[in-house]
TrEMBL record:
Gene Ontology CC: plasma membrane
Protein name per its UniProtKB record: Peptide/nickel transport system permease protein
UniProt cross-references to InterPro entries, sorted A to Z: BPD_transp_1_N, MetI-like, MetI-like_sf
Similarity-based family: Belongs to the binding-protein-dependent transport system permease family.
Region (Disordered): 1-24
Organism per entry: Geodermatophilus sabuli
PROSITE patterns, alphabetized: ABC_TM1
Pfam short name (any one): BPD_transp_1_N
Listed GO biological process terms: transmembrane transport
Length: 365
């Protein structure tokens, strides 16, 4: 008698395996992808709604941005023309409809479409986030592996303190220290900016630029411009990447230690397999799966840290512009940038969830 039949005979429900559930359509990859995709919309909706009402709680955007520069009559006319004298719910529904059609409004401080601001400065933030993730992988994963191998010894203690410091230290303070030591003190790296003036001028003459300086510099084919772009990226990437490196280090360490205690690892150890081989072949790769699942969360962390990093290093991306618009009290621009960041984070989480489900089928059930 089969296992299922035995369980039924005993009055207990048979437990189907994952492939059987997938064939029946329950808990399959398709349903998982659909659910995760549909979750994007309420996530963006909630954040956009929250930001809208928080911005409006201080009054209408025109009064907030231009209240001290216009007469009372001019201000009232601008408010009426923009429709900010209407009931707040009417303004909200109109704004929501515009957002879902891709219209994020026009900035009040420089009269630019918010979509143009997003397109112009979004690539700079994307480039910085990629650099920071690279730093986080290069530092966090090997150090996490080393901490797990040296568990409860002095290297483990040092690396755990390092991880806590990486996560707990404010990004702007890390950036200032890096600038003080490596730019002002030693003079090894540039203080601020995405590239030197000469390199930026050369990149502007490139046909159909992507806005990502490294890609554009490679397309230009000038080794000096490539080196210049990379030199300007080092300090901002380290300042922002250390924030996530601490998370990756702790996560890899915890999961490697947990995997080393699994039954199949103990069986391999009892057969005389060397500890280094156990770590490399049996414990290390499974410990990387949780890293993939938290990348989406770390993207949100990187986007938040990008505001301080870009401001500290004058890296002119969305974070830098967001700080400028907040200072100018340009709430229309702030709403648009935050809404776009919400979309980026939600879509990134969706992609990461799908990758994790493809790598580890247990995720989708």
């Amino acid at each position: 008698m089969t296992t299922a039949a035995t369980e039924l005979a005993a009055g207990e429900p048979a437990q189907e395996d994952a492939p059987a559930r997938s064939r029946r359509g329950g808990g399959g990859l398709g349903a998982y992808i659909l659910i995760r995709f549909l979750l994007i919309f309420p996530t963006v909706f909630i954040l956009v709604t929250t930001v809208f009402f928080l911005m409006r709680s201080t009054g209408d955007p025109i009064t907030a941005a231009l209240g001290g520069r216009l007469t009372g009559a001019e201000l009232a006319q601008r408010v009426q023309e923009a429709g900010y004298d209407r009931p707040i719910i009417v303004q909200y529904l109109e704004y929501l409809g515009n957002v879902f059609t891709g219209d994020f409004g026009t900035t009040l401080s420089d009269r630019r479409p918010v979509t143009e601001v997003l397109a112009t400065f979004g690539t700079a933030t994307l480039e910085l986030a990629c650099y920071a993730l690279l730093v986080a992988f290069v530092l966090g994963i090997p150090f996490g592996r080393l901490a797990a191998y040296a568990r409860d010894r002095w290297p483990d203690a040092v690396l755990r303190v390092f991880a806590i410091l990486c996560y707990a230290t404010p990004v702007f303070f890390t950036g200032l220290v890096l600038k003080l030591v490596f730019a002002s003190g030693l003079g090894w790296l540039p203080v601020a900016g995405r590239a030197s003036t000469r390199a930026e001028i050369e990149l502007q003459f490139l046909e159909d630029p992507t806005g990502i300086y490294l890609i554009d510099a490679i397309r230009l084919g000038d080794p000096e411009v490539i080196a210049d772009v990379l030199e300007h990226a080092v300090l901002p990437a380290i300042a922002l990447g250390l924030l996530t490196a601490g998370v990756f280090l702790r996560l890899v360490r915890t999961n490697v230690i947990g995997t080393l205690g699994m039954g199949y690892v103990e069986a391999a150890r009892s057969r005389g397999v060397a500890e280094r081989r156990l770590l490399r072949k049996h414990a290390y790769r499974p410990a990387l799966i949780p890293i993939i699942t938290v990348i989406g969360l770390q993207v949100a962390l990187l986007m938040g840290g990008a505001v301080l990093t870009e401001t500290t290093f004058e890296w002119k991306g969305l974070g830098f512009q967001l700080a400028e618009y907040l200072q100018a009290r340009d709430f229309v621009a702030v709403q648009g940038i935050v809404a776009m960041l919400a979309v980026i984070v939600a879509v990134t989480n969706f992609v990461v969830d799908i990758i994790a489900a493809l790598i580890d089928p247990r995720v989708r059930y």
